[in-house]
């Protein structure tokens, strides 16, 4: 089918997702695995003479990759993407960024021979001041073309990048990773807009690349396939690591093909990762005598992926055997010999498989395939598990993960088998979800009351509109970014943002409210952020106040000191604030004991479930 179309009317795209460059970068054996495979992907792109490379998110494994990792990726992109080969595709539209600079291959000062387009994933998403990602650094260095970033929290607008080669035209839509429940609710509220006002109409091939949960992990913690617009011809789904070689029909009314290439590196030792890894060569073409374009997808196996072999062993069966096979679980030496024997079998299985593969392909075995990832899942009952890292020392030169070869799972006697919970479409039918919602509502109410005091409004009961105004989902995301991605300013920036938004909301309510009795006037001693006086410089050293803080901390539990934006005129106690315990990620009530005009003791109390 592909051979019937002239090359000048065919757009060839190499598709890859979830490269996770930098994964275990400090590991002496596995540290360069992801980078090696990423280089192989670029080599395939050059060898196949594709028009562009399309990455579906998670190019980096870390939100803030180490400097050496960023340097290595930029160096590879410069080596394989810069050159004098002319670009065959024309760019008719650059997407939603009307004020963005041209794509790197459109810059007359740079010679690009292989354009690379990428969205962000959940690992390398933009955070912090300026909402920047590691991909922004690569884009400003003219090594990739970063698209699919959204500016708004509440509604999303997705405009296509319009590419053309000969008579074939592609509208490339991109959506970088967004927290799944937020994106679910945004689609539910019909606040996701796909701009379809492009030239060409039905003669344009609509391609959508996204990076979200495809497998359902909760009532709304995934993205259903049926939210994909029916006009999409093909959706490339990133984030899911299981590799599929073919595109299948899905979406609304089975109108869209969905292709899940999977990750290019193994990041978890599970069964889904045992499938051979590959990238996809997507060819989009339009025959002159036909109305719409068609596509062809060719899977290309990756040869530098470290193999994973998984085995299972149930120690209980040896307790039930008779004769020589019976095994006393207290005899740790015999049990360890048994486990060693099973691991050696898995290593031998990999050696045989790799050898046969090399003979069939007529190629040399890559070094990474000689040291596989091994995982032996051991079920036990009366056995005390041995020290796994010490056990793995005997396989240091044979496997790539000696410290976590074994995985122990205790099986209780006469335990009832637990069935997988079926999640109903109605979120309220799930008792755990309902309890979580009640707890979240109480935490939100406490935070609302804190915001009211902060801006000087008291006396009225918290309404549902109040809860919406502070946007609790954004606060939760800020805590996650602080903990998972070391974004130091995420909580402070988000609190200030919510405070300002809530103040605007309350001012709007007051202007529109006829009955002023429901609102308390702004207190005269409250200082706004606009007329806040500069805080005096805190004295250095511990001093008497430091001693008080230290003793109070020992008596009352966790506490810390901070300087507020608007301290009171004299020392006093205040309650009703809400905060987070970073260690446990749980909401806490906060009581402030003012020690001076600028410093206070912050005492936290856990918030009980309703």
Automatic annotation (TrEMBL):
> Compositional bias (Acidic residues) at which positions?
424-434
- Every copy of the Mre11 DNA-binding domain together lies at 295-482
InterPro entries on file: Calcineurin-like_PHP, Metallo-depent_PP-like, Mre11, Mre11_capping_dom, Mre11_DNA-bd, Mre11_N
Q: Which parts of this chain are annotated as the region Disordered?
A: 416-440, 508-569
For activity, the cofactor(s) needed are: Mn(2+)
GO terms for cellular component: Mre11 complex; site of double-strand break
Q: Which cell locations does it reside in? A: Chromosome; Nucleus
Keywords for the protein's UniProt record, in alphabetical order: Chromosome, DNA damage, DNA repair, Endonuclease, Exonuclease, Hydrolase, Manganese, Meiosis, Metal-binding, Nuclease, Nucleus
Choose any GO biological process term that the UniProt entry carries and state it.
mitochondrial double-strand break repair via homologous recombination
Q: Where is the active site?
A: 123
Q: Which Gene3D superfamilies match?
A: 3.60.21.10, Mre11, capping domain (3.30.110.110)
Q: Name one GO molecular function term.
A: manganese ion binding
State the SMART domains in the record: Mre11_DNA_bind (SM01347)
The record ties this protein, via PANTHER family, to:
DOUBLE-STRAND BREAK REPAIR PROTEIN MRE11
The UniProt family comment states: Belongs to the MRE11/RAD32 family.
What functional role does this protein have?
Core component of the MRN complex, which plays a central role in double-strand break (DSB) repair, DNA recombination, maintenance of telomere integrity and meiosis. The MRN complex is involved in the repair of DNA double-strand breaks (DSBs) via homologous recombination (HR), an error-free mechanism which primarily occurs during S and G2 phases. The complex (1) mediates the end resection of damaged DNA, which generates proper single-stranded DNA, a key initial steps in HR, and is (2) required for the recruitment of other repair factors and efficient activation of ATM and ATR upon DNA damage.
Q: Tell me the protein's name.
A: Double-strand break repair protein
Native species: Sphaeroforma arctica JP610
């Amino acid at each position: 089918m592909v051979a019937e179309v002239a090359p000048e009317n065919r757009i060839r795209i190499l598709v890859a997702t979830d490269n996770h460059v930098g994964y275990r970068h400090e590991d002496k054996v596995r540290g360069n695995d992801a980078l090696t495979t990423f280089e192989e992907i670029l080599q395939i792109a050059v060898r196949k003479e594709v028009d562009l490379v399309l990455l579906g998110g998670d190019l980096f494994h870390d939100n803030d990759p180490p400097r050496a990792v960023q340097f290595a990726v930029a160096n590879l992109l410069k080596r394989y993407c810069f050159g004098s080969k002319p670009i065959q595709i024309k760019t008719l539209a650059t997407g939603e960024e009307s004020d963005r600079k041209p794509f790197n291959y459109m810059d007359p000062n740079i010679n690009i021979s292989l354009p690379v387009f990428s969205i962000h994933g959940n690992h390398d998403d933009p955070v912090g001041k300026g909402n920047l990602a590691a991909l922004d650094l690569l884009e400003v260095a003219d090594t990739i073309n970063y698209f699919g970033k959204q500016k708004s929290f509440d509604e999303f607008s997705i405009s296509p990048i319009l590419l053309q080669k000969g008579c074939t035209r592609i509208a490339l839509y991109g959506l970088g990773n967004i927290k799944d429940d937020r994106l679910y609710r945004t689609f539910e509220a019909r606040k996701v807009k796909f701009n379809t006002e492009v030239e060409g109409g039905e003669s344009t091939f609509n391609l959508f690349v996204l990076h979200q949960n495809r497998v359902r992990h909760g009532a709304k913690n995934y993205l259903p396939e049926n939210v994909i617009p029916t006009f999409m011809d093909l959706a490339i789904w990133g984030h899911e690591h299981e590799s599929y070689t073919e595109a299948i029909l899905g979406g609304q009314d089975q109108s869209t093909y969905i292709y899940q290439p999977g990750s290019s590196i193994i990041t978890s030792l599970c069964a889904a990762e045992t499938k051979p890894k590959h990238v996809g060569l997507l060819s989009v073409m339009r025959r002159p005598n036909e109305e719409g374009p068609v596509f062809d997808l060719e899977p290309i196996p990756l040869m530098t992926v470290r193999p994973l072999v998984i085995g299972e062993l149930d120690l209980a069966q040896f307790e039930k055997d008779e004769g020589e096979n019976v095994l006393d679980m207290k005899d740790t030496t015999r049990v360890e010999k048994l486990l060693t024997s099973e691991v050696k079998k898995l290593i031998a299985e990999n050696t045989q498989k790799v050898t046969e593969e090399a003979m069939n392909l007529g190629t040399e075995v890559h070094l990474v395939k000689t040291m596989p990832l091994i995982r032996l899942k051991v079920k036990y009952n009366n056995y005390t598990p041995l020290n796994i890292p010490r056990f793995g020392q005997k396989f240091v030169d044979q496997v790539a993960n000696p410290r976590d070869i074994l995985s122990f799972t205790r099986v209780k006697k006469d335990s009832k088998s637990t069935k997988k919970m079926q999640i109903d479409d109605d979120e309220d039918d799930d008792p755990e979800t309902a309890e979580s919602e009640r707890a979240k509502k109480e935490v939100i109410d406490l935070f609302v009351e804190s915001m009211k005091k902060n801006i000087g409004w008291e006396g009225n009961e918290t309404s549902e509109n109040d809860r919406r105004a502070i946007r609790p989902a954004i606060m939760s995301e800020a805590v996650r970014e602080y903990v998972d991605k070391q974004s130091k300013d995420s909580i402070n920036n988000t609190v200030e943002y919510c405070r300002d938004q809530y103040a605007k909301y309350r001012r709007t309510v007051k202007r529109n409210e006829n009955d002023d009795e429901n609102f308390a006037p702004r207190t005269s001693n409250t200082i706004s952020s606009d007329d806040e006086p500069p805080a005096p410089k805190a004295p250095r050293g511990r001093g008497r106040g430091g001693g008080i803080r230290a003793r109070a901390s020992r008596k009352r539990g966790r506490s810390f000191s901070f300087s507020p934006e608007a301290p009171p005129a004299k020392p006093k106690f205040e309650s009703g604030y809400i905060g987070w315990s970073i260690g446990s990620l749980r909401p806490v009530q906060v009581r402030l004991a003012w020690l001076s005009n600028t410093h206070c003791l912050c005492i936290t109390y856990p918030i009980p479930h309703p």
